[in-house]
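Database export, one record per block. Field names are fixed; values are copied verbatim from the stored entry.
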Amino acid sequence: METLKRIRLYRQHLTDKADKRTVVRDLNGLQAQFTVNSFHALKIRCNEELSEAAYGENLVKNWTVRGTVHVFAKDDLPLFCHGKERYRSMEFSGYGFFGEKGYALAKSWGYPEDFLRECQEKGCAWTLSPERQADWSAFIVRRVAEGVSDREELKKLCTENGMTKFELDSMFDSWGGGMRELCERGFLNYKVQEKKAFALCPEFEPMETEAAELEIFRRYLLHYAPATIRDMAYYYGCSQTKVKAMLAKLPAEKITRNGADYFYMGDLNGDYPDIPPCLLLAGFDPLMLGYKKEESVFLPREHLRGIFNLAGIVMPAVLLDGRVVGKWSRKNGKVTFALFETVSERGRRAITEAAEACWKDIRSISWN
């Protein structure tokens, strides 16, 4: 497994640093629910100086792999916002509650009795009808074009212009909603910053869906793999059947180790660098998200919940000699390490040196 670790660290640019554009393209973007995480994931892979102020130049933030928000190269918009049939389309399906299951869901969310009765009587109750979604989508795009970018300010304008609470919930749902559709369809992007705000998306020619999926898959095989079919299904959030179908369309190679089949593309016959003494991975780092977490070669199973918590957050991991031994946090110049196991003095020195190399403004380091 040591060789596999060295190959993956190299291919993910953790021991083969590259420029910003190469890193984000090779890794299919960087997951960015929290922009600070994507900045750190890029910083530890880059061979050039990065500042937080200039980080977002030539990058965009949108919904991509696994239905999650990623930061990626602006010229990859045709790849990640693929599908010509949806591009700039104002044909929406709307949001609503349907049938008995919809009624039960609406009731569990605390919708009022008159709404629930409508849901029962009509078999559905629109929170945002297709027609209203189209109208409000056009309204929002116009406001963004006029310079209103902040999410909360857009919500306020919508309310002032007659959007109901139910429509607001559907349009600005924190898990996506109508705003996500506007982004996926090439109308808007998120700004590359922590505070939620939007910008007009530049025009582009989207790739066909099949070609785009194949290219995303190809990048994985070149820069995450060798990986198992289970790894790939986990990364894509799809079935193993789909993974096998995609593999059949690409010139993938296969090696078998310890009874498991690993697939990849590109040459593996290289003299890969040694595993670094310590790496401080980002939250939602590709090295954690790129493979089935229960079978990670870097994350011991007994430490899984320390990194992948039950709230869906992937914590910043301390990788010591290729093994996750804890997590870290940083605030106001103070770095705190929470270790999951006993670490030697040599190990603590390596962790401290990694922190000092990452941040020049450290005021203190503490251990939990």
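Remark 1: The mean pLDDT is 95.
Remark 2: The longest strand covers residues 323-331.
End of record.
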